[in-house]
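Exercise: predict the fold of this chain.
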Amino acid sequence: MRILTVALAVLMLTAQSIAAAPNWAALDMSPYEPPKPAPSFALPDLDGKVTRLEDLRGKVVVLFFWSTW
């Protein structure tokens, strides 16, 4: 009987901790914020054709910035 009482108490405490919203300030964490969309831009390719970011919607885009400063 004692084991059943302890198990029930643990179960109730666990259920309360799951139902409560986390205290982000106490955890020193911030909630996830989804990334913002990239700003619209257009760049010429090596052949001089202009490519716009909107033309690549739905595709994976990797920008590689290179310079010879």
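Check your answer against the key: The chain has one domain: 2-56.
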